[in-house]
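Reopening this ticket.

The earlier resolution said the output was attached, but the attachment link was broken on my side. Pasting everything inline this time so it's all in one place.
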Amino acid sequence: MSEWWTYRLSDFLLFSPRTYYRLFELYNEAVFPAQFGALALGAAIFVLSRQGGARADRLAASLLAGLWLFVALAFHAARYATINWAASWFAAAFAAEAALIAWAGAVRGAPVLRAGDDWGGRLGLTIFVLALCALPLVGPLVGRRWSQIEFFGLAPDPTALATLGLLAASEKPRWLLLAIPLLWCVVSGATLWTMEAPDALVLPLAAALAFLLAVVRTFAPRTAASDGPAA
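Inline output:
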């Protein structure tokens, strides 16, 4: 039996790049025209995060939590699990993130997605917009079919990055909510790296930027106190 340290990441990959990308193509066909609804919900979450106020905070958290739950069930559990045994664990993690966002933002009313009105808030919102509009286009620009685009609210990568952007934009980032999106970006980046995808580093690097922003906003002196309960 080979020693564990002789294994490479590719030894744990249970599917080919063609199978992986074909999965998204079939998924997009199955959920169409949900892509338009997901983009509309993304725009609504953006507006609500800028609007502020208890009602907007709760509604934004409810919408985002619903999208995380949808990805958990419709993508990970129903489709990704057909080619990757670990997808059931991914589904559980995404469902847990949905519950955390709903509890902190919708039930307790903490402004977890409310963007600060400063450079950090604007940078976090920029990451959100890039995840919503630009990240889905990276794949086709490096050779994937346009039918295999990954959409925010439907696919895990743009959903995780957009969430990181919003959480980092908050004046008081909640690290409990940041953990699962950050871990997913590492897992997805490792998967793409193993498949030798040319865009393998895009998601991890963007997530690293959101992580650094959250660190700065957590430990830098604040000029105003947070106005909601902690998660």
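Reporter confirms the inline version is readable. Residues 223-231 have pLDDT under 50 and may be disordered. The chain is about 65% helix and 0% strand.
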